Structures are given as C-alpha cells and as structure tokens.
Amino acid sequence: MVAVAISTVTLTGVNLHTRFHSSRFSSHSKRSSSTIRCQAVNGDKKKQSSSSSSRNVFDNASNLLTNLLSGGSLGNMPIAEGAVTDLFDRPLFFSLYDWFLEHGSVYKLAFGPKAFVVVSDPIVARHILRENAFSYDKGVLADILEPIMGKGLIPADLETWKQRRRVIAPGFHTSYLEAMVKLFTSCSERTVLKIDKLLEGEGYSGQKSIELDLEAEFSNLALDIIGLGVFNYDFGSVTNESPVIKAVYGTLFEAEHRSTFYIPYWKFPLARWIVPRQRKFQDDLKVINTCLDGLIRNAKESREETDVEKLQQRDYSNLKDASLLRFLVDMRGVDVDDRQLRDDLMTMLIAGHETTAAVLTWAVFLLAQNPDKMKKAQAEVDSVLGTGKPTFELLKKLQYIRLIVVEALRLYPQPPLLIRRSLKSDVLPGGHKGDKDGYTIPAGTDVFISVSTNICDTLFYGI
After folding, report:
1. Which pLDDT score is estimated for 66?
2. Which pLDDT tens digit goes with each residue over 50-86?
3. Omega cis (within 30) before 415
4. For residues 58 and 84, is the Cβ–Cβ distance under 8 A?
5. 210 has which bridge partners?
6. What is the dihedral of CA 262, 453, 131, 172, to 10 degrees?
7. How many CB atoms are closer than 10 A to CB 178?
8. Where are the beta strands (DSSP E) in 113-203?
9. Domains of the chain by range and CATH?
C-alpha cells in the first residue's frame, strides 16, 4: 500500500531506468537517517555497442517484411515504419509519442507483417470507444489473452463483459472493502519488513548501496493481496517464490512474446508440443489452472448460498474467508459455472497485479524526483495515520496521497494502450495534423489507442 511504503523511507531521486523495470537505491549505513536514492541502472556500454550491428540486421529484416507483407497505405494516412528495436530499447509509448509528433494523431504503424492504426487524439478515441463502440471489438488483445484468461473480463466480448460485470460488481461492497484494508496493511507490512531488513543489513556488509527492483517488489505485494483478497490463498510471494507465481510470470512473458512476434506460429497444431517455450507455456497454464480449480472446488464444497443483500451484511471483519470467490460462490440466483469463475479469477490474478505494481512503481519514482512532494506526502501520512494502522475511514482522509496516485496514472496510465479491431469499414476523424476529411479504414483493421499520449500531451491539455 502506497501510504505505508511512503511513511517508511525517504526518497530523493534523479534518473529513470531505460527499460523501466527496476531502480537502484542507495542507503547510508545509519538506519535512523537512511536515504534511498532512485538512479538509473545502465547496461554495459560495450555490450550495447556490440549488439548494435545485430540490431541493424534485425531491423533491416523487419523493414523488408514490412514492405512485403503489411499491405498498402490506408488512403493518404501517414505511415510510421517501426524498427524491431523500438519494441525493446524503451517503452513503446515513448516511441508512439515520437511518431505522434512526426505524423500527427492518426497514422499507420507497421512491424513486419503486422500493421496497426495508432490513435493519439481524444476526439478520435471517443469516436471509436463511445460513438461507434459496437463497430469494434478487442481484436489482438483477445487473440493474445483468450488462451490465458478465456472469457474473462478483459478479453471478453461486450455482452459477456456486461453479464460478468453485473455478477462481480456487488462483491466490491463497503464491508468487503473495509475488511480488505486490514489485509492490505498486513501484506504491506511484509514488504516494509523485508526492505527494513535489507537496509539494516547493509550497514554490516560494508556495501555502500543496495539494489531493489521496485516493480518486482510491488508485483509480489500485489500478488499476495490478490491471492488473499480474491481467493483466500496466501501465495507468500513477498518472501518466497511459489510454483504458482513462477507460472504467472511465465504466462505474462508468453503474452508479451506473442504481442510482438511477427508470425503466430503458436497457432500451428503441433506447436504446443514441439516448441519448447510453448510446452513451458502449457505447463505454466496447467499449474495455475490446477491451483484455481482447487480453490473453486473447495469454496463450492463449503457453499452457504444466500441473497446478495445478506452477503453484503456479513461481518467481514470477523470472517475466516472474506474473499471475493466466497462471495461469488455463495451468491444466490447466480449459476456458478466453474469455467467462467476460473476465467474471471485468472483475469484478476494475471492483469490485476501487474497494473497495480506499475502504478505504485511510477508513483514512488515521481516522488523520488520531487523531494518536496515526498515530504508533503510523509507529513500527511504522519498526521492522518500517526502510529496506528490504516482503516477504511482514515484512508479517505489521505487526499494528497490519492492525488499522487491519480497523477501517476495520468502521466503513466495503466494500461498505456487500448486495443480495438474494426468489425466493419469506418471513417476516423483526421485529428491533429490529419486530413480534414478523415481516414477510411476497412473491416479487420487493428487500432492502438495511445492513452499516454492522449492524457499527457500539452497540445490537448495545456499542462
């Protein structure tokens, strides 16, 4: 939890890691005055130099495939030809912003046989997401995530999403949230204790710095919270590496691989048995599914079916199992399908922890760059929480902390991209620097909506 972490250490900071996967922290040996400093973790320059030639070959091959396979231009829509290294050298949304400055708010981006229309304009985004929502589905996103999440909330089509959201939403009631605050606190204390031990141990090891991958630490924290809050299962990932957690990360790596690879070879019938990484992916899914199936089976065996109103009136502060799974299983009038439950729970497990960890990482990074804001945040935590533990009502009073999280979401939105696919021909508004008559796109066009560019560009918001 941000408030607990902020009240524990002092952060002063400078640069950002190139890949945004980790930050290095230095602390002085005296625990009472420990200062942690964010700084970049740069790779070996010689290694970077030696790999440049191979990258050029890779990029040339990419451009050749682009010219041969990605199709012609969409009318007079600008084209940004991406190099493969644009996907790996830095976060994609940085490259998308550069291309936005060069080509405007609507352009075609091609990587080998893959081509996308990139939208970086709130008016065009509204046209797709609101005014013509039924003319688009989730396209590539569903293609990549459906093998993992099935018909869960993220890859689901609109009708399935509406149905599942109506079922799940009542579970997030006030009594449940109040109970979850205690859970957030206990899980966060594990992370704080772990960092404290690292800082205390540093003084005796003779080292001048310690190194923490903040994204990994926050991912472990989020996984533990989701495990207990959603499944009533303690992964213990802050202190241990369980097979389930290793499998979760394995599926995420595979999803990332599929989103950037040229040819969907995994769709070939024998790939899951012949290709080593696909065999590992199937093994990872089996580990996660076995865990989730067991949790669902145990919950259903102890089912106490009742009405939604009575479920929401339970004393969640004293329940042995206050999880969302328990709520969904006990909800009367809902046909609890094991497969759909598995898909919903898998979605929360896989997607929920990653976005949470990213927001926390960026929030701490931003505070590290703004020491005066860090002090103000610490002062609010000390004033509101004192030496006691957070409660649901006290958290509502942490208004400055809330604004920090909201600003982190504005600057580094999660997810930074929304993905859609046109179900029929459409005419997109031209947007900034675009054709006043707009651009016609055919059915089957994949669209990237760059949320980070929409929210952060001064052209649209003047800040």
Report:
1. 47
2. 444 544 554 455 545 544 444 444 668 888 876 656 6
3. yes
4. yes
5. 25
6. 90
7. 16
8. 114-119, 136-137
9. 169-406 (1.10.630.10)
